[in-house]
């Protein structure tokens, strides 16, 4: 895998360079000291992955990410020393197409590198997602029959990945503050950013937004965000639960796993949406929900940052409608009104 490093601090560049070179099969494609230089180099020599700093002179990492994804799209991992202090910038960069974010590793007091394991783990996962190594086989849909439960509860399930934060904000802004359904969101994201994402989304909508807690039952008019790197699912008790399995699945938390659990345990067909994202996660699960009577939506290519997950759903025949991101809220509400 050819990896580019974008950072204005020479010490940080050296740490990242050493980490990249420590893994067989990884090589440093080039380095850049600011966003403008990174955009220019990506056009001339597109790498497999860019390690993008956020705070830089001339052009910051958010602007650089947006420009690269428009001109010469490739996988981008935000690597910054102040992730928690720049949560809004992290989600802006992810809205433009960055896949994930991680804190910048540093040299320790003994000369070793601290924090390198997290970065290398994320690079390996991204490598699997972009096809540098073989992806795990799709998780099979559960064969256990649904349990008998009372009807009447309504739920909107949404899955997203690359470009997801901005798309999710657009959907939530289009829903009324008293929507007669619970909204559950699975966004591919490291657990350390989940709280920040929920807080950020809460600023974009009048609906209350919080992390989904294990054992909590979804309530109408509230938005729940998957809160760990484990997979969020609905159990037979119609409550949220988290599971590590399948442990080797590269997409965490998995949209497929959540959709499978809805088809198995949720008492009444609702609306399921698959938004912008790289890969195929959620497509098989969306197909299962459509077969189970759910109304299924996929974001269109024109408004997707990466038309991977929605494309896979469309190709499978999993989407009842393929719509622009601005049309999706109205489609959700139209279907909710039909249900009543």
Molecular structure report:
The chain is α/β, with parallel strands linked by helices and 340 residues long. It has two domains: 2-129, 3-Layer(aba) Sandwich (Rossmann fold); 155-339, Rossmann fold (3-Layer(aba) Sandwich), CATH 3.40.50. 34% of the residues lie in helices and 20% in strands. It has eleven helices and 16 strands. It has helices at residues 10-21, 35-44, 61-71, 87-96, 116-129, 164-173, 194-202, 255-265, 283-291, 309-316, 328-339; strands at residues 2-6, 27-32, 49-52, 75-80, 100-103, 106-107, 113-114, 155-160, 182-187, 209-211, 223-225, 231-234, 240-243, 271-274, 295-299, 321-323. The strands form four sheets. Strands 10-11-9-8-14-15-16 form a seven-stranded parallel sheet, with helices on both faces. The protein has a five-stranded parallel sheet with strand order 2-1-3-4-5, sandwiched between helices. A two-stranded antiparallel ribbon has the order 6-7. Strand 3, helix 3 (61-71) and strand 4 form a beta-alpha-beta unit. Helix 3 runs parallel beside helix 4 (87-96) and helix 9 (283-291) runs parallel beside helix 10. The protein is globular and about 60 Å long. It starts with a strand and ends with a helix. The model is unreliable at 132-151 (pLDDT under 50).
